[in-house]
């Protein structure tokens, strides 16, 4: 006998699940990487060791979730909260060392120290902060944990002053400090200046969506396990017991349904990362009109995922603009995602145009206009940290679209010259 869910009961279920999906800091699997981060921070707090490390992995792979999960577990111990100060900085927010230093000072509760001198010049601010970090002994000083999100963006700061000093302090025998950088750049070590690199421990932890340490038979099993975690209602939750039982029973039946597994297999083939899954589950729960999950609710959201808006934007570009995007794609493939400027893209495009007589020659100002249009569409973004005096032709950019999106756009475009299609699909330039 099934229990019919009333409107208020269903509202409670939906509210609980949305909060669980959004706020969850638990990452399934990746136990080895989690243990490495846990031990690193624990040794800093309990043993007074100073450490530095980088957590590296693709966007959406769960790097921030993993770090927050580790901190959450450590904070269950009341003595941890008494012995540590956690400072969180973000490369997209703290765009220069001055902003990062001001935020650090505030998070360490040093705003009003020394009669306001902390608000003086950058040099005075930094000197004061470093003095605070260097004074004291291991046994009596509070440990300071620095979490640097988008770590690669801090490398673009002038002279990398903040990174240099943080790593320098992490090598000292005074206040215990742990500097943990989070980034998606695999080549991030190469972005560090020589003097900064010499003070970094070179400890790197890699996190990828496909976790080889999980005892599962396939990516599908892993995905189903994650869906079960996010959508299962715990028995100890204060809610109508019959409603909980019915919801969990329906979920378990859905997870073993063959048609449902085929739908989730498609999702696993498209994208394995945690962020994508959470976004889909949030939309599924938000769009529920009844108290029961169905295969169709998941099918609709995955269909929307496959209809990529960015792919449509690329598809609507002119032939010249699409050629420039393809030139950027080849540049990234050859130089391992290294930034590019207009001159590099222009050179690659001209080489292609000269090799194909059917491609009409275009004047340089027209190509520049096409490049600027691509920038206005936010398909590329300027890399911060460069001098404002640099001419726009030499300002470095990074491509914000994936090779798959470019390939899909080329595949679905009508009337493209054959040479352009072949160039887009070629791995050799």
UniProtKB/TrEMBL annotation:
UniProtKB keywords: DNA replication, DNA-binding, Nucleus
Keyword Cell division: no
InterPro entries reported for this sequence: AAA+_ATPase (IPR003593), ATPase_AAA_core (IPR003959), ORC4 (IPR016527), ORC4_C (IPR032705), P-loop_NTPase (IPR027417)
UniProt-listed Gene3D superfamilies: P-loop containing nucleotide triphosphate hydrolases
AAA+ ATPase domain span: 49-210
Subcellular location: Nucleus
Record bears the keyword Nucleus: yes
Domain of life: Eukaryota
PANTHER family (UniProt xref): ORIGIN RECOGNITION COMPLEX SUBUNIT 4
Family affiliation: Belongs to the ORC4 family.
Subunit structure: Component of ORC, a complex composed of at least 6 subunits: ORC1, ORC2, ORC3, ORC4, ORC5 and ORC6. ORC is regulated in a cell-cycle dependent manner. It is sequentially assembled at the exit from anaphase of mitosis and disassembled as cells enter S phase. Interacts with DBF4. Interacts with POLQ.
Function noted in UniProt: Component of the origin recognition complex (ORC) that binds origins of replication.
Protein name: Origin recognition complex subunit 4
Native species: Molorchus minor
């Amino acid at each position: 006998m099934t229990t019919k869910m009333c409107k208020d009961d269903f509202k409670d279920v939906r509210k609980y699940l949305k909060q669980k999906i959004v706020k969850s800091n638990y990452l399934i699997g990746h136990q080895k990487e989690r243990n490495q981060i846990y031990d690193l921070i624990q040794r800093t707090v309990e043993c007074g060791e100073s450490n530095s490390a980088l957590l590296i992995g693709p966007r959406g792979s769960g790097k921030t979730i993993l770090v927050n999960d580790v901190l959450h577990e450590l904070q269950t111990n009341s003595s941890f909260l008494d012995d540590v100060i956690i400072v969180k900085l973000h490369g997209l927010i703290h765009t220069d060392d001055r902003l990062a230093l001001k935020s650090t000072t505030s998070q360490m509760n040093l705003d009003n120290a020394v009669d306001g001198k902390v608000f003086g010049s950058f040099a005075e601010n930094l000197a004061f902060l470093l003095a605070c970090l260097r004074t004291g002994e291991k046994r009596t000083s509070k440990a300071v944990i620095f979490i640097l999100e988008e770590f690669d963006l801090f490398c673009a700061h002038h002279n990398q002053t903040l990174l240099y000093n943080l790593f320098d302090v992490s090598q000292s025998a005074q206040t215990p400090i742990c500097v943990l950088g989070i980034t998606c750049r695999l080549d991030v070590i190469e972005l560090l200046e020589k003097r900064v690199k010499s003070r970094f421990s070179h400890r790197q932890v890699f996190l990828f969506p496909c976790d080889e340490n999980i005892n599962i038979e396939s990516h599908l099993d892993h995905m189903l396990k994650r869906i079960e975690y996010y959508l299962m209602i715990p028995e100890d939750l204060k809610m109508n017991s019959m409603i909980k039982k019915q919801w969990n029973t329906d979920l378990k039946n859905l997870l073993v349904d063959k048609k449902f597994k085929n739908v989730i297999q498609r999702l696993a083939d498209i994208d394995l990362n945690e962020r994508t899954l959470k976004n889909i589950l949030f939309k599924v729960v938000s769009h529920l009109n009844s108290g029961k999950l169905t295969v169709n609710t998941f099918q609709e959201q995955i269909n929307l995922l496959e209809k990529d808006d960015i792919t449509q934007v690329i598809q609507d570009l002119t032939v010249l603009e699409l050629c420039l995007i393809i030139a950027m794609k080849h540049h990234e493939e050859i130089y391992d995602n290294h930034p590019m400027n207009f001159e590099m893209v222009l050179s690659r495009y001209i080489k292609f145009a000269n090799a194909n007589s059917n491609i009409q020659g275009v004047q340089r100002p027209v190509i520049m206009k096409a490049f600027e249009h691509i920038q206005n569409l936010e398909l590329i973004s300027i890399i911060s940290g460069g001098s404002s005096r640099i001419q726009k032709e030499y300002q470095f950019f990074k491509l914000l679209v994936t090779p798959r999106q470019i390939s899909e756009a080329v595949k679905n475009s009508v009337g493209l010259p054959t040479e352009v299609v072949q160039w887009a699909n070629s791995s050799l330039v």
